[in-house]
Amino acid sequence: MRRPLLLVLLAGSRILAQNITFATVEPSVVEQRFARLRPKNDERASVLREIFHEAGCTDEHWAEVKVRGSKLPNLICTLAGSSARQVIVTAHYDQTGGGQGAIDNWSGASLLPSLYQSLSNQPRTLTFVFVLTMDEEKGMVGSRDFASHLSPEQVRNTVANVNIDSIGLPGQTYLWASRAAPELLNATALIASAMKLNVGPMNIDGVGESDSRPFLDRRIPVIDFHSLTGKTITLLHSKKDVPEAINSAAYYDTFHLITGLLAYLDAKADPEEKH
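and the corresponding structure tokens:
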């Protein structure tokens, strides 16, 4: 089902209106996909492949790319747009520690097929590349490999890297604001206001890294979505990283917010900028 969203956003004294349309993926579907969590990385890859295919990403849209130094590939789904511009959406699917890796990062990985499904209901201007990366826990191996293979032209044409890592904990959605591109922070704030969703800054500098780093190093605008605080970050890589830690309402709110942001970026794109 299509959900049209008309945003009337105030920018100083100027009113900016954007028609944003995306398909609704019901909360029950998003929850069911999360519930297919597996603890082992090879099993996670297999389940994510199935979920993406069920969401409609098959054939020429789907690719599995071997990563040097990793036993498992990056899993890539591409929703082609009409222009040369692209948004790269990343989430790592590997996990480590004594828990099940539900927060870190099945919460992000299992969301990507639903994001693809939400946007694939109509032709898009931007190309959206959904990348499930491998071995983030070993030094962002998969994302470094992917980013290193982007040509200079592809880098210039990349509007944003939207990285999703450890979401759905009770509370609001957070942004790694000190790392994020200002234009992406502003866009997210506008979308959150229009959709009546809570979002705020929560920087994790000095605590860890994320898959946005290789894209940032290539001067690509990035934004990281997470739900960690000083208290909850200790859940990662522990026995408490289990499905029961996730709040379904908070998880869906983050999904809804990211969907709105991606659709907004597409609505703003120049349709005349062809491949």
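(Above: one complete record from the training split.) Residues 1-17 have pLDDT under 50 and may be disordered.
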